Amino acid sequence: xxxxxxxxxxxxxxxGAFNSSGMWESxxxxxxxxxxxxxxxxxxxxxxxxxxxxxEGIKWWRDNRWQSEEGERHDFVAFAxxxxxxxxxxxxxxxxxxxxxxxxxxxxxxxxxxxxxTLEGKINFHFLAxxxxxxxxxxxxxxxxxxxxxxxxxxxxxxxxxxxxxxAAMKGFEGEPTGLAVHPDRPEQVALGARDGLFxxxxxxxxxxxxxxxxxxxxxxxxxxxxxxxxxxxxxxSLLQLDSTGKQTAEIPLPELKEDAVAHTSHNPARxxxxxxxxxxxxxxxxxDGGATxxxxxxxxxxxxxxxxxxxxxxxxEDQ
Length: 320
Prior knowledge:
Shape: globular
Structural class: mainly beta
Distance between the termini: 26 Å
Radius of gyration: 19 Å
Helix content: under 10%
Number of strands: 27
C-alpha cells in the first residue's frame, strides 16, 4: 500500500442528506477541497458531524457539507478525541509561533486554538489514545529516543495531562505498533495493533495477550460501548467488531478497497448503524445502514462534489 502526497486545494461546500431509506440524495454540487493526509476522525458527541484531523488542521463534515475549521492549520500526526475536544501531537502549521514539534497539546474548540500541555519542542508522538470522560487518561507511543521523562521509545500514559508519565512495560507485545486504542471508560484496558495480530492489556500496558494471530491490524478503536473495532488486512481488507477479550462479534461489510485498507474508523454515538471510515489512500466513506451501502465522501484526499454510491467489496461499479 502506498501513501498519497497531495497538494492543497480550494474550499468546497457539499450539500445533501440521507433519505428515509438510507440512500444519499444530493441537493447541491460545489467545488472540492483536499484532505491532505487523514490522521484521524471522530464524530462529535451529538453525532451530527465528523471531525477529521489532517496535515492541514481540522476539517469537518457536518450540516451536510464540508468545512474547514478556523485557526492555525497544524499537522496533527497523532489525534485522540475525548468528550470535551481532543488531544494531539504533531507539527505546527505554516506561520505558527508554536514550538516544533508540538509535544502534547489539547483543544477544546475543535482546533481553533490549542493549549500546549507538555513536551513541546521535544516529542512527536506517533500514536495517541484517550479515555473519553474527564479527567482523561492519555496514552502515547513514540518510536525515537527523546527527552525526559520519555527518553526511551515505547508506550507511556498520563493521568494529569502530562504533569507526570508512566512507561508501560509492554510484556508480551511483539513487533511495531500499527494502532493504539484505549477503552472509553476503563483506562486499564489498552489495545495495540501489529502486523501479526492484536494485543490486549488489562493492566495499563504492563502485559499484553495476543489475539487474532496472523492478521495484520490496519486500524484500531473502541466504540462508545467499549467494543473494539479493528481494521484487518491479510488477503483482503476487512473490518471486525470484537468484545473486550478480542472475540469477534460481527464483521462490518466494506466498500470495494483496491490495494488499500481501513486506516481510521468512527462510530456515530447517536446512530449505531452509522459509521465513517478513512483508508491508507485517504479515501473516506460513510454508511448509515451498518455497511450494507457506502457513500464515498473523498477519494485520494479530494472530497467528492457530491457523495457517490460506492461498490461493495467484490462488486463491480457497473453492477451498482
